[in-house]
Amino acid sequence: MSTQSKTRNVTLTTLGNIKANGEKFACMTAYDACFASILSAAGVEVLLVGDSLGMVLQGHDSTLPVTMEDMIYHTQCVKRGNKGALLVSDLPFMSYASETQTLENAAALMRAGAHMVKLEGGAWIANTTRLLTERGIPVCAHMGLTPQSVNRIGGFHVQGRDTEQAQAIIEEATLLQEAGANILLLECVPRQLAKTITDALSIPVIGIGAGPDTTGQIMVLHDVLGISPISPKFVKNFLLGSNNGIPGAIENYVKEVKDGSFPADEHCFK
Ligand code: KIV
Questions:
Q1: Of 126, 127, 168, 199, whose CB has the highest number of CB atoms within 10 Å?
Q2: Which residues of 83-104 are buried (b: 16+ CB within 10 A; e: fewer)?
């Protein structure tokens, strides 16, 4: 493993400058200190302690069973290994259902080491976003496919394919930016929709299954390493092309995100 970290204290200003310069940044999920160290040393700018841990670590079939205790524990682990990446932690299912809960739970994640919290939803999280950001807690709003709503959506499907739904996503993304969201994450939306939103917003947009035109890309660690039980269309196994094991795979991911070669056409929804 490289001992020299390529990532030095990434902040929201760093990400804003990357967007302003027309460049790209790399994000990845991390759940423990060891991988946090490898990923941040390889140049991943944003580490997400994702509630996907419920699926990839705990073996559940959704993210719904993940608790605040789980998120606090894994955030503390990632913080210990992190070498300068921006650390984002997910507020899990039903942890931001009321104002009191939201403030207590977001504060707990920040005390555990997060620099920012992520929550899923559209217009209905605008007030929550304002509540948090006005109190000094940066917010990443997660739209498109929102896995905590899998039972309402009826599965893990691409979102925004018809004009009406696409228009609603554009309007709600703008509303969330106005409410103070500092980053928008778009999951599983058509490439053109992600480009329209990225161009329209002043905040950085991170994509997963959203094509190459967003400011940043994010992948689930286990998908990048080819060890997830399922492999959706937007996933690429970077371990296959690595000549330096896991650190090499992560370095290749960072390089391909930054030079725009990942995601390629075959990873996009049209
Ligand atoms: O929980 C998670 O890992 C996520 C990513 C899929 C973006 O939200």
A1: 126
A2: bbbbbbbbbbbebbeeeeebbe
pTM for the full predicted model: 0.97
| 3 belongs to a structural domain | no
Please give the structure tokens belonging to residue 89: 């932690």
The two three-digit tokens of residue 132, written as one number: 């948090």
Domain that holds residue 220: 12-267
Residue minimizing CA distance to atom 8 of ligand 1: 50
User: Which of 44, 185, 223, 231 has most ligand 1 atoms within 8 Å of its beta carbon, as the pocket-test mutant?
Assistant: 185
Residues with CB under 6 A from ligand 1: 29, 48, 50-52, 90, 142, 185, 187, 208, 218, 220
Q: Domain of 47: which CATH number?
A: 3.20.20.60
Which residue's alpha carbon is nearest to atom 4 within ligand 1?
50
Token pair recorded at residue 12: 């929201």
Contact 31, 221 (CB under 8 A): yes
Compute, in degrees rounded to 10, the torsion defined by CA atoms 120, 122, 126, 127: -70
Does residue 5 lie within any of the structural domains?
A: no
Output the tens digit of pLDDT for each of the chain's 270 residues: 444 566 679 999 999 999 999 999 999 999 999 999 999 999 999 999 999 999 999 999 999 999 999 999 999 999 999 999 999 999 999 999 999 999 999 999 999 999 999 999 999 999 999 999 999 999 999 999 999 999 999 999 999 999 999 999 999 999 999 999 999 999 999 999 999 999 999 999 999 999 999 999 999 999 999 999 888 999 999 999 999 999 999 999 999 999 999 999 999 998
Residue 118 annotated as part of some ligand binding site: yes
Domain count, the chain: 1
Query: Which residue from 29, 87, 159 has its CB within 8 A of the most atoms of ligand 1, so it is best to mutate?
Result: 29
